[in-house]
Design goal:
mainly alpha; 4 helices; 0% strand
Length: 167
């Protein structure tokens, strides 16, 4: 120790040092007692073997979940690709028919004439369809009770006009 001790406001005596040591020992003993009680009361941790089993089960579940997600995603992609394939097949069929027409008519003029002929035929077919539709609509109208009643009134008026003209 130095000859000139520094005063920091704490005086130590043999009694206070002994008391501090006793308090520290009491704390250690209390903690050890707490640990003994805690070890007896707490649920023991699962064994290493059980922990490994639980970990394997969780990994397996995660892998199955990821596998199912991947399977669903791939099925969706397959469905999309099938739709695209169907569209491409239809487009190929259309192009094949156009190619057949162009090879049938070697010159562009013949192709143009064939196209014009097809346009006229299509227009005539549309006219026929329109005429059929008009005939169907007229038949629907003439079958109604209201139209039948109007026809009777027209006949009656015509007959009354003829009778008036003859007088």
């Amino acid at each position: 120790m130095s000859e000139n001790p520094v005063y920091i406001g704490i005086e130590t005596t043999a009694h206070s040092t002994i008391q501090a040591n006793a308090n520290a020992i009491a704390c250690i003993l209390a903690f050890n007692g707490f640990m003994d009680v805690a070890n007896n009361l707490l649920i023991p941790l699962p064994s290493k073997q059980l922990q490994k089993k639980i970990r394997r089960h969780r990994v397996k579940q995660k892998a199955q979940s990821q596998s199912q997600e991947t399977k669903n995603r791939l099925q969706a992609e397959i469905a999309t690709l099938k739709q695209e394939l169907a569209a491409l097949k239809q487009e190929k069929a259309e192009l094949s028919s156009l190619l057949a027409i162009t090879t049938k008519h070697k010159s562009p003029e013949a192709l143009w004439q064939s196209e014009e002929l097809l346009r006229r035929q299509m227009q005539e077919m549309q006219i026929e369809i329109d005429l059929n539709q008009v005939a169907r609509q007229v038949a629907e109208i003439t079958k109604t009770d209201y139209f039948q009643q109007l026809q009777i009134e027209v006949e009656h008026l015509r007959n009354s006009e003829v009778a008036d003209d003859s007088c």
